[in-house]
Design goal:
Blueprint: H1 3-25, H2 30-41, E1 45-49, H3 56-66, E2 71-75, H4 83-86, E3 87-92, E4 97-102, E5 109-113, H5 120-132, E6 134-137, E7 140-143, E8 149-154, H6 167-170, E9 173-178, H7 184-198, H8 214-225, H9 231-243, H10 252-255, E10 258-260, H11 264-280, H12 288-299, E11 304-305, H13 307-311, H14 316-326
Parallel strand pairs: 1-8, 1-9, 2-5, 5-8
Antiparallel strand pairs: 3-4, 6-7, 10-11
Length: 330
């Protein structure tokens, strides 16, 4: 075994160990845990939608403790200003000059809590950070850290006082993950965990030995890009994306359900996420199931259903399910 393969095994072991640790702290949300790590490995941002109390905030907080990264939570409100995210220039009388005070976006991991509660100007400032990995204040542009991920949350229950996210910003999220309530056995485990934490019987922080360093993470990202995808599977992946633009080819009913399909950014996202999912599972090749599983989280926020589909109660997930069922698997 070469030194390089040992390093690859150690990198995979570190990320799988991180996944196990997070799963111990975030019980009953295995999909969310996996999707966070996939977003981290694919260098993208994640939008999480779920009812209050489902450990969305806790999840990224636990993730930040397992990675060599700093974390900041921003509560989005209607009165939030762009400068509250980016930072602002402050006058220093001692130097008789202005000095830029960095805002929360200069951290590695950002939790944008209830992102749809802030108006367009705030979303525009966040969009620049997500898309360009930089912040512009006045005539100066400041680069963000190489490790930078936004995890945004939305509450699907309460719609009063919210602002729909623009399609251009939604497209910048690598994944849109929907989570639901845990099962009974998981909720029982959550009770035990909460009781143990209240008694301080379990560790609140992991030791530095358990950290996944940024060097290891960047190495893992490079290994993910080297995961093999057969040309037939690459064509299958593209066929799914192209089918969202011409769904009528797979049925008259599908053609009437969709208003707009997914952009090429969806192809790139599905490619990287399928590779990351396979790598995290310990495989060096992509299987059709990887593409099919990730298609829902990659596409649900990138397609726009028609008014007829919404009137019939057709959801984005149902549309994607029907599309995948009608496309032949190589």
């Amino acid at each position: 075994m070469t030194a390089n393969s040992i390093t690859e095994n150690q990198t995979l072991s570190s990320l799988q160990g991180l996944k196990s640790y997070i799963s111990e702290q975030i019980i009953g949300q295995d999909v969310l845990v996996e999707r966070m790590l996939i977003a981290l490995l694919a260098d993208g941002h994640i939008l999480v939608e779920g009812a209050p109390g489902l450990a969305k905030t806790r999840a990224i907080n636990v993730l930040s403790k397992g990675v060599e990264a700093n974390f900041h939570r921003v509560q989005f409100t209607p009165d939030l200003l762009p400068a509250d995210l980016t930072g602002t220039e402050i006058f220093r009388p001692q130097q008789n000059a202005f000095e830029f005070q960095k805002g929360p976006l200069f951290h590695n991991l950002i939790l944008a809590d209830e992102i749809n509660r802030s108006p367009a100007k705030v979303q525009a400032a966040l969009l620049e950070a997500m898309a360009e990995r930089q912040i512009t204040v006045g005539s100066y542009t400041y680069p963000l850290p190489p490790l930078f991920m936004v995890m945004a949350t939305q509450n699907p229950i309460e719609q009063e006082g919210t602002y729909p996210l623009p399609e251009a910003q939604l497209d910048r999220f690598l994944l849109h993950v929907k989570i639901s309530y845990p099962q009974a056995e998981h909720e029982k485990a959550i009770l035990h965990l909460a009781r143990s934490e209240a008694k301080k019987e379990i560790r609140q922080d992991i030791t530095p030995v358990d950290y996944v360093t940024q060097e290891v993470l960047f190495q893992a990202r490079a290994q993910v890009l080297d995961v093999h995808m057969a040309e037939s599977l690459e064509d299958y992946l593209l066929q799914i994306i192209l089918a969202t633009r011409e769904p009528k080819a797979y049925g008259e009913d599908l053609g009437g359900w969709l208003q707009y399909g997914a952009s090429p950014r969806a192809s790139i996202a599905l490619d990287r996420c399928a590779r990351a999912k396979a790598w995290l599972a310990g495989r060096d090749f992509v299987a059709p199931e990887d593409i099919q599983d990730m298609a829902f989280d990659v596409l649900r926020h990138r397609i726009i259903l028609s008014y007829e589909a919404e009137a019939e109660g057709i959801s984005a997930d149902y549309f994607i399910e029907q599309l995948i069922a009608r496309i032949a698997v190589p």
